[in-house]
Amino acid sequence: MKALIEKYFEGETSLEEEAKLRDYFNDGPQSGEQVAEELKEYQPMFQHFATERQQVLSDDFDETLFLKMEAASDAKIVQMRTWPRQLLRIAAVGGVLVASMLFLQKSNTTQAQQASVDWSKYEIKDEKVAYEETVKALRLLSSKLNKGSKKATEEVGKMEKVGKYFN
Amino acid sequence: MNHHDFKTKILPIKNRLFRFALGIVGQAAEAEDVVQEVFIKLWNNRQQMDNISNIEAWCITATKNLSIDKLRSKHQRMVPMSAGFDLHDHSATPYETVVTHDVFDQVRNLMNRLPEKQRDIMQLRDIEGLSYQEIAEVLNVPMDQVKVYLFRARKAVKEGMR
What we know:
Mean pLDDT of chain A: 82
Strand content of chain A: under 5%
Oligomer: heterodimer
Number of domains of chain B: 2
Order of helices and strands of chain A: HHHHH
Shape of chain B: globular
Number of strands of chain A: 0
Number of helices of chain B: 9
Low-confidence stretches of chain B: 76-90
Structural class of chain A: mainly alpha
Strand content of chain B: under 5%
Structural class of chain B: mainly alpha
CATH architecture of the largest domain in chain B: Orthogonal Bundle
Low-confidence stretches of chain A: none
Shape of chain A: rod-shaped
Order of helices and strands of chain B: HHHHHHHHH
């Protein structure tokens, strides 16, 4: 057995030989056979391996697992169904962005067109004509202002009449 | 992969994966969660799984990664596990029982302190009883390297026990 354990630590033992070592250190003491004093230091190691081998999952593991697997599959189906909805949302946001970009582009173009109008073409060069045009514009403004104040006076008069009924 | 494949090819390795996770997380409930998560992940990706040549290797890698993640996320220490071994035999005195527990914990802790490859190989050989060829395939390590890692791992545990 000592030779076998030396071989084990050299990494040269076969699976069968390793099983023999496990049996010796685990079954030996149970069957009343004593482990040699010089080999006792290795006993916990082989007992540990045997103990670990006995560890198994709980009995209800499979049942719980299958339930969770089913639930996970269902969740996946639901996810697939909601996928087109998500796609529509993304498309809608994309649409809004494209529309905004087109609008901005258009308004920029209009501004640019406006900026490019050459107003000097319409400028009056003759002083007399310019004077007449200014007088005409001021008269128009004055008549509009007079019309406005007349209208305002009328409205105030009406308000005063209405006000009498409330007093 | 269908239900039948899952039951015949994957489910039989559940306890191996459980012990693998247990060796890392140290608690049975946590290890069980890990195996469950690995299987659900595998099932959800079953269409892609048909392209994987070694599903067991995939499962072991996933179990290892998930166990390490779990351990990190909960800031847990690797706590020793002593369940499943009946120490209450007639020959053991309370003193002997305590000493045996301590020595078991020591073996587990020594294994957990090994470099990752060495620990994995020692686990698969000394606890799971896999051949060198199987270990090489599962861990994707050349067979001669498996022997070297195993030799180093056993030597380190032996020296640690002294």
